[in-house]
């Protein structure tokens, strides 16, 4: 017998005619994530099998890989003869500590002479005879003994590692994440990745009003997200002239509305350049003035591209809990302001009027400013291994 890692697909199995595309993308994503670890992958539409000497490292990578429902470290037997299965299983159980057990068998080979229930009964009986003080408990056993009978092979495993599910990154195209230094947008990026969307990010900086620390904070957030997709390209837009023009020329209660409308315009134009199909942001209904339903409508109307808001109906506590789980929360709360938090008026409008927003925008040469900003974008590709942000494109 040899040790092997079994991957179960979960939601991917619902894809029917497209399943090969999803599984091949998952395989490619895993190969890229394991590029520095010796391994071998074989797969079919039911399971993926990984051979390696570095099981713990590989499992750690797989637990951060979207498209995986479950991971098992198993023992592979190059035979599905019931006597050999029985003898090898009994040998494995000598090293296990348990008082109660349950046998669960899955049989891919439907021509196998015994069905799953017959195998459970036979193996259970042999275990009881071999280990006199053990008992069967089908509800809450100390040890789950999982047996899979496949064509010319059989597998045993005792523990299951939960995967993070979703679709393999890249299967649903690309989106542009509006990434700030706050708590919400990285969580939105995580959920977009989970649905198979490859993300690139856009970050608006406003030096000298925002600092290098604020920029590096966002790049650190991108690095956390890159653990799930291999890399994240961050497009950094200098927003200083635009933000100062809005502050000097527009009514302060409309500053946030106009600022967001211009951010949306820039993001849409960049999305066409990089072939992103949607914009993604961390807006949550009612959380701040720019996220009332009226504000969202007035801001959204300046673009034609679809806008995904994965967190639209989450409350703040839910978002914080996810941020902690994906290790972005401690970065997000670092005290470095981004351009969304500077020049904030005391009383921003919560029910803006489209016609007024349009009139106030005419007070600044926003098209000229947008074109200048788009010409001077800095692009940094963040890899999950990067500790420094020196991979400038």
Summary of the model, kept short:
The protein has 393 residues and is of the alpha/beta class.
Task: List the defining traits of the structure above.
six-stranded mixed sheet, 15 strands, 393 residues, 13 helices, Rossmann fold, 38% helix, nine-stranded mixed sheet, alpha/beta, VC0802-like
Cα shape: elongated
Strand fraction equals: 15-25%
* Secondary-structure content class: alpha/beta
Number of domains: 2
Average residue-wise pLDDT: 93
Helix count, per DSSP? 13
Terminal residue distance:
48 Å
H/E series: EHEEHEHEHEEEEEHEHEHHEHEHHHHE
Give the CATH topology of the largest domain: Rossmann fold
Topology:
Layout: E1 2-8, H1 19-33, E2 39-43, E3 48-52, H2 55-62, E4 68-77, H3 82-93, E5 100-107, H4 116-130, E6 135-136, E7 143-150, E8 153-157, E9 161-165, E10 174-178, H5 184-194, E11 198-205, H6 212-229, E12 231-238, H7 240-249, H8 255-274, E13 278-280, H9 293-300, E14 307-308, H10 316-325, H11 329-332, H12 354-361, H13 366-375, E15 378-383
Parallel strand pairs: 5-6, 5-7, 10-11, 10-13, 11-12, 13-14
Antiparallel strand pairs: 1-3, 1-4, 2-3, 4-8, 4-9, 7-8, 12-15
Please describe what this structure looks like.
By secondary structure, the protein is α/β, with parallel strands linked by helices. It folds into two domains: 2-164, VC0802-like; 174-383, 3-Layer(aba) Sandwich (Rossmann fold). Helices cover 38% and strands 22% of the residues. The chain is built from 13 helices and 15 strands. The chain has helices at 19-33, 55-62, 82-93, 116-130, 184-194, 212-229, 240-249, 255-274, 293-300, 316-325, 329-332, 354-361, 366-375, and strands at 2-8, 39-43, 48-52, 68-77, 100-107, 135-136, 143-150, 153-157, 161-165, 174-178, 198-205, 231-238, 278-280, 307-308, 378-383. Strands 1, 2, 3, 4, 5, 6, 7, 8 and 9 form a nine-stranded mixed beta sheet that branches. A six-stranded mixed beta sheet has the order 14-13-10-11-12-15, sandwiched between helices. α8 crosses α13 (366-375). It is elongated and about 85 Å long.
């Amino acid at each position: 017998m040899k040790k092997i890692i079994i991957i179960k697909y979960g939601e991917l199995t619902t894809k029917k005619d497209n399943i090969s595309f999803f599984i091949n993308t998952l395989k490619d994503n895993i190969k890229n994530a394991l590029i520095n670890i010796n391994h071998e992958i074989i797969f079919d539409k039911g399971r993926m099998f990984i051979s390696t000497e570095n099981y713990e490292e590989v499992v750690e990578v797989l637990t951060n890989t979207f498209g995986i429902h479950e991971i098992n470290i198993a023992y592979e037997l190059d035979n599905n003869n019931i006597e050999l299965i029985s003898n090898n299983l009994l040998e494995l159980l000598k090293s296990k500590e348990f008082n109660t057990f349950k046998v669960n068998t899955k049989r891919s080979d439907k021509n196998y002479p015994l069905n799953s229930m017959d195998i459970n009964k036979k193996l259970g009986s042999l275990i009881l005879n071999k280990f006199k003080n053990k008992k069967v408990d089908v509800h809450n056993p100390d040890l789950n003994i999982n047996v899979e009978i496949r064509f010319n092979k059989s597998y045993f495993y005792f523990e299951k590692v939960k995967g993070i599910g979703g679709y393999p990154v890249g299967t649903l195209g690309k989106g542009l994440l509006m990434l700030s230094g706050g708590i919400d947008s990285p969580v939105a990026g995580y959920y977009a990745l989970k649905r198979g969307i490859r993300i690139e990010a856009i970050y608006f900086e406003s030096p000298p009003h925002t600092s290098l620390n604020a920029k590096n904070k966002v790049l650190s957030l991108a690095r956390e997200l890159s653990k799930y997709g291999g890399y994240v390209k961050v497009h950094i837009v200098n927003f200083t002239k635009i933000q100062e023009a809005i502050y000097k020329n527009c009514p302060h209660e409309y500053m946030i509305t106009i600022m967001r409308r211009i951010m949306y315009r820039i993001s849409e134009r960049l999305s066409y350049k990089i072939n992103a199909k949607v914009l993604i942001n961390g807006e949550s209904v009612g959380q701040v003035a720019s996220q009332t339903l009226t504000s969202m409508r007035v801001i959204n109307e300046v673009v034609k591209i679809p806008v995904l808001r994965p967190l639209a109906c989450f409350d703040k506590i839910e978002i914080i809990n996810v941020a902690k789980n994906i290790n972005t929360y401690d970065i997000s709360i670092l005290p470095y302001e981004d351009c969304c938090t500077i020049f904030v008026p005391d009383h921003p409008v919560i029910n803006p009027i489209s016609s007024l927003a349009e009139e106030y925008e005419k007070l600044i040469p926003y098209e000229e400013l947008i074109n200048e900003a788009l010409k001077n974008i800095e692009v940094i590709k963040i890899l999950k291994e990067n500790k420094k942000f020196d991979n400038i494109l």
